[in-house]
Amino acid sequence: MTAKAPDIRPVTASVGVAQAMKSVFLRDVRVAFRQRQDLLNPLLFCVMVVTLFPLGVSPEVSFLREAGAGILWVAALLSVLLSLDHLFRHDFDDGTLEQLVLQPQPLFLLVLAKTVAHWILTGLPLVVLTPVLGVMVQLPGNSIAVLCLTLLIGTPVLSLIGSIGAALTLGLRSAGVLLSLLIIPLYIPVLIFGTGTVAAASEGAPVGAYLALMGAFLVLAVTLAPFASAAALKISLSNS
């Protein structure tokens, strides 16, 4: 019994931009659910990191409350990074990516649709899972709420920035290692402000400024990352 081939029908010229983005988004969701291991691996990795960290460092409640936000943010960051190699890889292998580049619709909008699908499938489940993991590391309720909010703002930034690295390393050998080297330095500001927001909330300090800065990161990422990713895809395809 052969596996069902992915839907790689091209978006025609008569289709509007919004409909083209919707088609790309829905196709990515359908393909992801046919390859469920790609959906489960980031979540299982995040759970394992959060579970093993107290066993390997210290199970004391005071330590976990102090370091819990950092543990969860690092676990979420690495989980998103783990899934980035599949953002364009399957489309590159089956020829769909070349069809997208040739479409009359702007490529950066189609890339944005793919990145939104990646976040819905990877980042959003991590946000939903965060309250359970927060209880595991003994975080108080208000810190868990702020942590979920920072991840809700920050994980789309991770996916958008990561799409640039995924596009640049497309088709290269050892792409996963190179992708990590390119993207992790760009993730550091998001990590710092994400954990800093939770630390400020736990001390009773106002967090509005932190959230505003993270919102600014998200706006900049949505505005600039799709253009950079689209340009990187064209370069990678021309060199393949």
Automatic annotation (TrEMBL):
InterPro entries: Cyt_c_biogenesis_CcmB, Cyt_c_CcmB_bac. Its main location: membrane. It is found in: Cell inner membrane. It holds the Pfam family CcmB. It is a multi-pass membrane protein. The chain crosses the membrane at residues 39-57, 69-88, 108-132, 144-170, 177-201, 207-233. Keywords: Cell inner membrane, Cell membrane, Cytochrome c-type biogenesis, Membrane, Transmembrane, Transmembrane helix, Transport. Required for the export of heme to the periplasm for the biogenesis of c-type cytochromes. Belongs to the CcmB/CycW/HelB family. This is Heme exporter protein B. It comes from Marinobacter koreensis.
